[in-house]
Amino acid sequence: MAKKHDEKQKAAENTAEEESAEAAVNEEDLPATEPQPEEPKQPSELEKAQALAEDYKRKWYSVSAEYDNYRKRTSSQAAQAYADGKAEAILKLLPVSDTFGYALDSAKDEATRNGIDKIIKNFNAILNSLGVQEAEIKPGDKFDETLAEAVMNVPCGEGEEPNTVKLVLKKGYKQGEKVIRFAQVSVTV
Question: Among 82, 90, 99, which residue's Cα sits nearest to residue 179?
Answer without folding.
Answer: 90
